[in-house]
Design brief:
Two copies of one chain form a homodimer.
Chain A lengths: L4 E7 L6 E7 L2 E5 L1 E3 L12 H6 L4 E4 L1 H6 L3 H6 L3 H5 L4 E4 L3 H6 L5 E2 L4 E4 L6 E4 L1 H11 L3 E3 L11 H21 L6 E6 L5 H14 L4 E3 L8 H14 L6 E3 L5 H9 L4 E3 L2 H7 L2 E4 L2 E4 L19 H5 L2 H9 L3 H28 L2 H13 L6
Parallel strand pairs in A: 4-14, 5-6, 10-11, 11-12, 12-13, 13-14
Antiparallel strand pairs in A: 1-2, 2-3, 7-8, 8-9, 15-16
Helix pairs in contact in A: 6-7, 7-8, 8-9, 10-14, 11-14, 13-14, 14-15
Amino acid sequence: MTTIAFHIIGQDAKSAARTGILATPHGLIETPVFMPVGTKATVKAMTPEELEQLGATIVLANTFHLALRPGDELVHELGGLHRFMNWKRAILTDSGGFQVFSLSKLNKITDEGVAFRSPLDGSMIFLTPEKSVRIQENLGADIIMCFDECPPYPASYDYVKASSERTARWAERCKAAHRREDQALFGIVQGGVYTELRAWSARATVAIDFPGYAIGGLSVGEPKNEMIAALGVMNELLPRERPRYLMGVGTPEDFFTGVRHGVDMFDCVMPTRTARNGRLYTNEGLINIRNACYTRDPRPISESCACYTCRNYSRAYVRHLMMSNEILGARLTTLHNLFYFCDLMSRIRDGIKRGNLAEVEEHALAAYRNPAQTP
Amino acid sequence: MTTIAFHIIGQDAKSAARTGILATPHGLIETPVFMPVGTKATVKAMTPEELEQLGATIVLANTFHLALRPGDELVHELGGLHRFMNWKRAILTDSGGFQVFSLSKLNKITDEGVAFRSPLDGSMIFLTPEKSVRIQENLGADIIMCFDECPPYPASYDYVKASSERTARWAERCKAAHRREDQALFGIVQGGVYTELRAWSARATVAIDFPGYAIGGLSVGEPKNEMIAALGVMNELLPRERPRYLMGVGTPEDFFTGVRHGVDMFDCVMPTRTARNGRLYTNEGLINIRNACYTRDPRPISESCACYTCRNYSRAYVRHLMMSNEILGARLTTLHNLFYFCDLMSRIRDGIKRGNLAEVEEHALAAYRNPAQTP
């Protein structure tokens, strides 16, 4: 039994790319989709209305951060994440696994779970698959994730093998612990860059049977060709009729790579984080609005962009705001970058439907492949 | 000749309070009015659309800051402040005088002008009445201010006398230097807390003849009764048919004091600055949303408030955002406080029109006079 439904409505002739509709308790999501990251129950600098207006249909929130502050029980008491943050569309929470390993110190992994120190107050916390599921049930997202270990890169074959096996055992425990019928629990495939382990992990996870599958442990520093090889295995072994989510990815280039390997969902902090540093994605390439060359530039960030920022403000003004550390600067740049990412996904969906994905890719990536062309 | 027109449309029977319409090249302003402060060509954390929606009809920008960065010539080149910051309603710029004395070090005053070090790069800058007017012409606000000296409090009678006389001489030079016909240049009355000097300064400034008058040098640390005495002199001596602007004031209580002494315009950084620290104005009193008592509070900041924040978010969520230093926290609190200030002015205008200003005051200030009642 699952609360979501996935319908593939278009398929690329030359690759595994597909476009579809993912129905959730909080609305329909056209795939492939980019999910803005709202770590602490807020996509940094944005209101929910702005996110909807720029085309976001699902956001990601981080279980690790929210469990620490304000606490999942508080969120539950206040009606769950949707109500807490006033976001009426779909939400996906991660399991906290990735952050336990990447953000906390002194973590100790056993088969039972992971012990780590809270980065907020240094207290010891013990997180298990069952606890991760309970926290995510309290948060109340539409899609929740199995608790997993994301091995670092590089890591030895033996380490990744033991880790992937543990992640598979944890996935069974997560499924057994999960009670809420208005949430879909996704499995996570690991296996690092070892295609044999990727295949094992995919088969083991699919055998447990989840309504959707995430591809974890990629874009953690490995060469592109290793990521592509792993994606190839995933595309072969994950059931075609279920949604696939490539975690923590990525760049505009990565989207095309992922989509061609049958990926439906993406998330990444990059558009929001780099925006606050002044790095802006445009059809004409990446620009850093803090550069002196934009000091007196009356043009919008991108003349081909239809976002609120580009319709109303000059590069000179946005640069002035960024140089002055004004909050409105972070707002305008974040809005622009998220618009670009969501709009790029919309163009990718159209490209799949119309059979001209290659053209869409060429148009979108030309400026990124040749930085000399950047504005 | 002036570009603004002021029409008094209602007068309180028991005080000098009046309500009117100030017509500017960028729209009508109902007075008494609160002007949000947009120091660096942005009201911190707000878009122009949000300001309009919460009822702002004029904002203030700071000549001193903008002359330093991005520079008034750049703003002029990009079409002036309105276009630069995408604000379609009225703008008032101060003269830079106040900041020269309060923010810069090593300032040296002569009759010619003031020499001071730039707080940005330490370079020496020499500002004169003529330069202040030229900068403000470049910025292009609807209402601009004479270059003045705001004496500190306390200051000796002799110091304030000499300073007020110089400010009057500077006012003549400002008027002589002012060329733009689409801007109104306001005079500024000084005189500190010495009613005799206040009277002298008012007469001297009115003799030069300006389309509006600002009352400077109050709310700089003097006791309330001294401020009230000075306002009494101002009300007597400033022409009733011209708009009056009490600079840098103030609190909800100060608004009623000012309005009863015939003041039409107010500005203050307080609602925006305190919002970013979590201090929120409500009809029920002042609250600090960071207090632990709001951790699980599902109510809006104020149940009697109609602002976007109060219609959509709980105290618990706003507190969570503030404790996490999230940008959305600064947005929601700023919007709430500005709404409160603009709405309070709207209620004051209604009170004058309907003859129940005392009731409006009692309702608005009761909670502030008795902090035990705060929510």
